[in-house]
Amino acid sequence: MNSADVRQMREWLSTPQRIVLIPHKNPDGDAIGASLALYHFFQAKGHHVDVISPNDFPEFLKWMPGAEAVINYEKKSHQAKERIGLASLIFTLDFNSLNRIGSLSDALQDLQADFIMIDHHQSPENYARVCYSDVQMSSTCEMVYHFLASLDALDQIDKRIANCLYTGIMTDTGSFKYAATTATTMRVVAHLMEQGATHTEIHRHIYDTNRPERLQLLGCALQNLTILPAYRTAYITLSQEELDRYHFQKGDTEGFVNYGLSLKDVVLAAIFIENRDEGIIKISLRSQGSFSVNEFSRAHFNGGGHTNAAGGRSELSLEETTKKFEGLLPGYQKELNL
User: Fold this and answer.
1) Is 179's pLDDT higher than 90?
2) Looking at the predicted structure, is the pLDDT value of residue 154 above 80?
3) Residue 24 carries which DSSP code?
4) N or C: which end of the chain has fewer CB within 10 A?
């Protein structure tokens, strides 16, 4: 954060505020971790705080301290709108475009509140009075840590905050293996452990609590794996019928796309998941090296994200979407075969 933004935040937070914290739709560990970390911090400082999520989040994140206080906009829109209407400060966390929160964005129109964005994705929109955007950061949770540092508040990180921030950093870095993990990231993580983050317990909650149906769904996904050696690409499909067969729950497909990327010589991996209720195909994209799935998704699938991790959507059928995807690859053959 620049010095002017830090001064502005200090001024706002010097008196009691009504604060609303908003993660993106289908929130992951980073979005929920950042939201709940700030929830605990601001509450301890005497502010009135609400976390309002556009929709539900995965069961494997609901152990997190404060998770029970999250207001699900899909289920409690009247309550959520009431809290938003009273807010003096609204933090948008782990997203930088209001289309990432679905219909919740309608409730953010014509408000008197000041907006603060904390996010590490590319191409931020210009809606926030304070915009803390850094695409070099491993995660929004690492940014929240530095946000607290700018307020001289690192000594106020308790076990609850440490667990929330550690969760977001761990999940968004793929357990610290992605290129965005820096020496600074590891120093942050070390301090969070010193402040009480229970790293082995967090890992168990996130990765070692599978239902049998999720593993069966993974088996189905791997059966559907398509490999395109000429383009160093692999992709997975999951239809609505297959999701229903294995009693899909939110978060069950987390990480599936990485199996394609784990193949030798593959530099681009994708997963296409049918969502009949929304009438879309949800797309997750991952890449190795310099191939930008952010640019690819923005150009072709109404999405975006990071250079090596992005999402998108298609309103075509599952079959038509994969056909479109395959049809695009010849135009990127040179980039994919570098």
Assistant:
1) no
2) yes
3) P
4) C
Report helix, strand or coil for 282. Answer: strand
1, pLDDT greater than 90: no
Q: What residues contact residue 161 under an 8 Å CB cut-off, 6+ apart?
A: 37, 40, 41, 195
Q: Cβ atoms within 10 A of the Cβ of 222, count?
A: 12
Give the residue-averaged pLDDT of 58-64.
Answer: 95
pLDDT, tens digit, 9 for 90 and up, residues 270-306: 999 999 999 999 999 999 999 999 999 999 999 998 8
Indicate left, alpha or beta for 310 from its phi (over 0: left) and psi (-120 to 50: alpha).
Answer: beta
Burial of 298 (0-12, 13-18, 19+ CB in 10 A): middle
Give the C-alpha distances (Å, rounded to integers) separating 88 from 115, 226, 300: 9, 50, 38
Are the beta carbons of 168 and 137 closer than 8 angstroms? no
Q: Which domains does the chain have, with CATH numbers?
A: 3-207 (3.90.1640.10), 212-336 (3.10.310.30)
pTM, 2 dp: 0.91
